[in-house]
Amino acid sequence: MSLTIKAGSRLYGATSTTELIVVKTPSAELDLTIGGQPALLDASGRTGATDIAEGHGGGAAMGKRYVDSSGGVELLCTKAGEGLPAVAGEVLQLKDAKPLPASD
Amino acid sequence: MHLASLVEMVESGFDERVLLGSVTAPVTGTDFGRMVRSGASTLPGYTSLVYAGENHPLLPVALFSAAWAGIPFVPVNYRLEDAHLISLINRQPGALVLADEHTAARLGGIAEPVQLFDEWLVNLPAEAPAIDPPFDDDEIAVVLYTSGTTSEPKAALLRHRHLMAYLLGSVEFGGAGEDEAVLVSVPPYHVAGVANMLSNTFSGRRLVYLRHFEATTWLNTVRAEAVTHAMVVPTMLARIVEALEGADAGVPSLRSLSYGGSKVSERVLTSALLAFPNTGFVNAYGLTETASTIAVLGPDDHRAAISSDDPAIKRRLSSAGQVLPTIEVEIRDDMEQLVAAGETGMIYLRGEQISGEYASGSVLDSDGWFCTRDRGSLDAEGYLFIEGRADDTIIRGGENIAPAEIETVLLAHPAVQEACVVGIPDDVWGQRIVSAVVLRPGQTVDVEALRDYVRHELRGSKTPDTIVFRDSLPHTDTGKMLRRVVLTELTQSLGQS
């Protein structure tokens, strides 16, 4: 099931506290899941269930960025949660980023 | 991405975290989001939000309210004389002007509505009608007037995509510890003031404001608010060092002190490193047109330079460090060809955060490169050395001479407090080199002795033809030397030969 998204769209885990924001996406329609469940565009759709599909858990960390193997999709985690994001079944990988010293 | 997204990220990630205000009057991410949404609800119908005033503890509410409402935030220099300030504001027809009390009293002549920022904040509607923020990141987020040290102020345009590219490329969202606080003393109309608001909000670091800079207040506030990070311009660093009179700064909470905005004197930096023995120093280089910092000399670089015996590493203390991983840099000669490492030329930059755009149009070339009009060089490992504005270059007898090189030598003389080197018209040489020098209190030195000193360090063609002593030199209030003013004064008083 695909969602209509763009840079800046908010994504909520249906079965975890994970929240993400879309940094970039190669297309407006994307099959996005969090914890293996379809990602929500609105937090009000959360039911309180906590099931995480196998291989889709382990925790998304606040401030970290998650990318697909092509590098076209990039999501930023704004609230930590058990569920990891995936696109068309491919669990996104943590993007390596070297923090720079604070300059301002 | 759009700055309005940052508001939503703050509400999601920092709902309970204190982002603004003092220890006694904290504003959490949830409070902040509510104030911004409410602030934006007062803005429909306006074409921009002008801020004319000193720093304010809640200044970021103004910037983000404008972003949420989809209009540019335009902080203007309230220290300009009335006519000049009013003419800048008049360049923003249809704006809402938020001002501090002192500045508002000076704005009688403008057509746009003026409100006191404090009153605007008090009157924010409790039940704000929801606005759907326009998420077009190609819209203009911030308009900044360049300081105009070499020409008339230009309106630089920073779009949402430039500012977000800077944040995403150099700051980690939520990367600050909950105990961290940054003290902001650069004014709101300086690009560093805008960058302060954005990068600290993005990293989740509490913003503490000085309404205006004063060295003792700065030191006391660092102690009272347990400040961990601060950014100053070199003039402020000089005043802090002066106020300490050689004593330890006594600010154990301060982990990081960043300086930038103009060239720092080696003497000030060395004194500062001694006064702040447990603080990491960061030198940042950037321009208004590059959406703030594009090169950083970090604490490790500072330590390496100080402790090294290798002259190539030692001299990096006077560099701007290496460019951010998201930025490309090239040094080109007058024919726009790349120069070798160590050679001086014009600094060109490219990257997603580089705006290079004014109200009058973009100056990026067709490949997206921005000519900074700063001259500089890169060493073998990519450390960037800034030599000053190309427009300040003196051409004497066909030879290009960077005033900064001569100024650095003059400043290293124990009797010299300040120096400004300019080229004034000369029938024989095209330009001749004149230096205005301010001596340190209680010091004297002979003009010829000072000329000999420069000749010994550099060479004859780079020795000032004339040196004059002055009681002070004119600066912008963020510490940039007003060379135009010095040049005009010296040309008039010394005349053409």
TrEMBL record, chain A:
Annotated protein name in UniProt: Unannotated protein
Organism placement in taxonomy: unclassified sequences, metagenomes, ecological metagenomes
From TrEMBL, chain B:
PROSITE patterns to which the protein is assigned, alphabetical: AMP_BINDING
Any one GO molecular-function label of the UniProt entry: medium-chain fatty acid-CoA ligase activity
Statement: the UniProt record of this protein carries the keyword Ligase: yes
Transmembrane segments: none
Keyword field: Ligase
Gene3D superfamilies: 3.30.300.30, N-terminal domain of ligase-like
GO biological process: fatty acid metabolic process
Chain ranges of the AMP-dependent synthetase/ligase domain: 52-358
Domain AMP-binding enzyme C-terminal: from-to ranges: 405-480
Family per record: Belongs to the ATP-dependent AMP-binding enzyme family.
Protein name: Unannotated protein
Organism: freshwater metagenome
